[in-house]
Amino acid sequence: EVQVAESGGGLVQPGESLRLSCAASGFTFSSFWMSWVRQAPGKGLEWVANIRRDGGEKNYVGSVKGRFTISRDNAKNSVYLQLNSLRAEDTAVYYCARERDTGTYYSQIFDFWGQGTLVTVSS
Amino acid sequence: DIQMTQSPPSLSASVGDRVIITCQASVDITKYLNWYQHKPGKAPKLLIYETSNLETGVPSRFSGSGYGTDFSFTITSLKPDDVATYYCQQNDNLPPTFGGGTKVEI
To answer: What distance in Å separates residue A9's CA from the closest CA in chain B?
Structure first.
């Protein structure tokens, strides 16, 4: 059974850092692109970043470029999101999601998601 | 970035009703449009990918159609378990972007 589970969320002050983790199981992790998607309170879903199967390519939404870093450890079946210089507007539930393998370079079809971890940025 | 405009933002319908949600892209995305169901506190769930392909295990009362810039999502006979927020999402170009969501209530 495919499973992804996020951890690492919490309450931090503006300007501080946090590292989110996502542990995957039930599939060949190294064969899939992985993404982070967030949902601010009362808002819709927003894609944040993704990372190629081998970690060699990473993409980010404009609002987090230069502040957030996505990485992965295929030996540990895990993907991470380092959040630096956090702002109040980064407050959200952060979801880890697998991107479906469609045979193309990447698909951006999110076929399995975790239940999310809450990040709250407040003084 | 491609903007996705979803409507209505919310709707209330009765069990057994036909429910239709629309999604409009700011540019031509051909067939690259997906639909998700999201219940509070749960993981979002992929229902339909590339406009009209039903994800494995998803009931056939869910369907999708469209092409280019205009898409629709239909629940043919609403059930109590369908109470959720539904999102469209384009996967034609980075960054992938979502519609604002439609909250479906009974």
So the answer is: 15
Contacts of B97 in chain A (CB under 8 A): 47
Distance CA A7, CA A20 (A): 6
Extract the residue ranges of chain A whose pLDDT is less than 50.
Answer: none
| Closest in A44, A62, A114 to B43, CB measured | A114
Quick: pLDDT tens for B34-78: 999 999 999 999 999 999 999 999 999 999 999 999 999 999 999
Quick check: B13 contacting A, CB < 8 Å? no
- On whether the CB atoms of residues A80 and A19 are closer than 8 A, the answer is yes
- The mean of the pLDDT values for chain A is 96
Are A109 and B34 a contacting pair at CB < 8 A?
A: yes
* Chain B residue numbers touching A100 (CB-CB < 8 A): 49
Confidence label for B104 from pLDDT (cuts 50, 70 and 90): very high
Q: Are B45 and B81 in contact (CB under 8 A)?
A: no
CB A93 within 8 A of CB A20: no
